[in-house]
Write a structure and sequence with these properties.
The protein is α+β, with helices and mostly antiparallel strands. The protein has two domains: 113 residues, Phosphorylase Kinase, domain 1 (2-Layer Sandwich); 296 residues, Aminoglycoside 3'-phosphotransferase, Chain: A, domain 2 (Alpha-Beta Complex). It contains 15 helices and ten strands. The strands form three sheets. The chain has a five-stranded antiparallel sheet, with helices on both faces. It has a three-stranded antiparallel sheet with strand order 6-8-9. Strand 1 and strand 2 form a beta hairpin. Helix 5 packs parallel to helix 11 and helix 10 packs antiparallel against helix 11. The radius of gyration is 22 Å and the shape is globular. The model has no long low-confidence stretch (mean pLDDT 96). It binds 5-S-methyl-5-thio-alpha-D-ribofuranose (SR1) and magnesium ion. 5-S-methyl-5-thio-alpha-D-ribofuranose (SR1) binds next to helix 7. Magnesium ion (MG) binds next to loops.
Length: 425
């Protein structure tokens, strides 16, 4: 897939009325929706930071339409952002679809002029973050997500494929510079400095935020992960795999919103998901009620963090054993029992580096959601600022520990054991 140059003048943001003829002109979508276009029910439901999202319901079916705006939606036109992120989102879906089976939505149509994707409307799914705030359990979630990251990353890595093929994919996604810029600034720099884009729960967190911004040990550790983010081109990563990028039902999980996709460290996707589970854990006192103290639910969340890592680890190692067709660790170098033993040990050592990366990136993700531009509903929906600050203080303390004392966390059980002791209540 190569990148088509599109004259900017053909682009226009869609609205409820212009979407109707646009969809009616696509035979497949028209048939899927059924009935007369005039009867389709269309509503804009986007609540993310960047894009327009519409749900369209017809007599026979429904679709979801996502269009990239030429600016950051959460900030308005004063923060321009090229809409070609929709191109990279579509390219990511195409690249991983052969490997991840039903763990992404079906894509029906991509329009390169409108930077707009028509996809499966997932129902009765909801955004995972909303489910976690509501205290819902998803028995398959950890297994699905571990499997997802393992498959998407393994099959786009040099362990699975010839480097020539990966370099082509890498070259394509190297164009996604505007979105990598967002991550570089909003995750790895702004939270540690004064920036007009930052905000935090003020005044309760003022002193702590000042302390963290003066903490050179913390800043060096975070900067190392920022460097790793740019340098470790291990696989095609989703690039924004937080709990708002996953839709869930009781039995199904789907990964959405891969517009930040690029070649980067596998631990970045692992850490995004793991870190957002920890954020959810820390936010739970803010969602407790007299009827639902969330104590057992918190334990369930920690168990899911462990199960996610174990699922990823087991699946990645199994894929490596079965599909080692790439140029990294060529199979032919490791014949015989001695070779097999050495390869086995090297694989274990690689998993240990991914584990350490997951924790470091998780910590960076946690800090940015409390000190930076883009916050998370887990905390934002806690109306009492003092209670919110207490929850956020615990999360910040844990993130700091993960970044500055990494050797305390050799196994996921170490994290699970530490979290309850690093909380304000
Ligand atoms: C300006 S975009 C802010 C954040 O929203 C996305 O979900 C990414 O996490 C990004 O950093
Ligand atoms: Mg998103």
């Amino acid at each position: 897939m190569s990148r088509a140059a599109v004259p900017a003048s053909t682009y226009r943001p869609l609205d409820v009325e212009s979407l109707r003829p646009f969809l009616a002109a696509q035979a497949k979508v028209r048939e899927l929706l059924g009935g007369r276009p005039a009867t389709w029910r269309i509503r804009e439901v986007g609540d993310g930071n960047l894009n327009l999202v519409f749900i369209v319901e017809g007599a026979d079916g429904a679709v979801c339409v996502k269009q990239a705006l030429p600016y950051v939606r959460a900030a308005g036109p004063s923060w321009p952002m090229p809409p070609d992120r929709a191109f990279y989102e579509n390219a990511y879906y195409l690249a991983v679809a052969p490997h991840v089976g039903g763990l992404i939505p079906a894509i029906y149509h991509y329009d390169p002029e409108l930077y707009c994707t028509v996809m499966e409307r997932l129902a009765p799914h909801i955004i995972l973050r909303h489910g976690l705030i509501a205290g819902r359990r998803y028995p398959q979630l950890a297994r699905h997500l571990g499997e997802y990251v393992a498959r998407a990353c393994f099959f786009t890595s040099d362990l699975a494929r010839a480097f020539e093929r990966n370099m082509e994919t890498m070259a394509l996604f190297a164009g996604n510079k505007a979105l990598v810029r967002i991550t570089v600034d909003l995750i790895f720099a702004d939270p540690y400095c004064e920036s007009a884009r930052n905000r935090h729960t003020s005044p309760p967190l003022d002193a702590l935020v000042a302390q963290l911004r003066a903490d050179t040990q913390l800043k060096v550790a975070a900067a190392r992960f920022g460097q790793k983010f740019l340098n470790d081109t291990q696989a095609l990563v989703h690039g924004d795999l937080h709990s708002g990028s996953v839709m869930v039902s009781e039995t199904d999980s789907r990964v959405i919103d891969p517009e930040f996709a690029f070649y980067g460290p596998i631990g970045f996707d692992l850490g995004a998901f793991f870190g957002n589970l920890l954020l959810s854990w820390y936010s739970q006192p803010g969602h407790a009620t007299a009827a639902d103290d969330r104590v057992a639910y918190r334990q369930w969340i920690l168990e899911q963090a462990g199960a996610f890592w174990e699922s990823f680890r087991g699946r990645f190692l199994a894929l490596w054993a079965e599909h080692a067709e790439g140029d990294a660790f060529p199979r032919r170098m490791f014949g015989g029992p001695e070779g097999a033993a050495a390869l086995g040990a090297a694989r274990e050592a690689f998993m240990d580096t991914l584990f350490a990366d997951m924790l470091g990136f998780a910590a960076c993700k946690m800090i940015r959601r409390i000190l930076g531009f883009a916050h998370v509903l887990d905390f934002e929906s806690i109306a009492d600022a003092n209670l919110r600050a207490q929850c956020e203080t615990g999360a910040l303390a844990m993130a700091r520990l993960l970044l500055t004392r990494p050797l305390q966390f050799r196994a996921v059980a170490d994290v699970i054991a530490a979290v309850p002791g690093v909380a304000v209540r």
